[in-house]
Amino acid sequence: MSATLAIVRREIRARMAELEPIQEEYDRLTEAASRLTAITVTPHASRRPIPQRHRQPAVRGTRVTQALEAITHQPGITPREIAAKIGVNVTYAYRVLRPLQDSGKIQRVGKGWAIANT
User: What is the extent of the structural domain holding 97?
Assistant: First the structure.
């Protein structure tokens, strides 16, 4: 029986020797995980904030006033003609006209625009 007991003790020590590096790694990982949960992330101070686009109120501004004047003096004026009169490209003219239409200040007349009947 003492021979069997000696064999079992040797096998246990051998297995413990095999598992010891794994236990040490487990302990290191546990420590690292606990340290990571204590860390809070803050933005880097030298980075500038990303600018956000702010949409201006729709029916205010010089271009809106210029567009309304052009439409008042020439009912049925096209977006291309409005753009030429106020000095912007056609795409921007549409950006000025759409909110005016949505707010009920102007209306479509054929291919052009006119002051809305209120």
Answer: 62-115
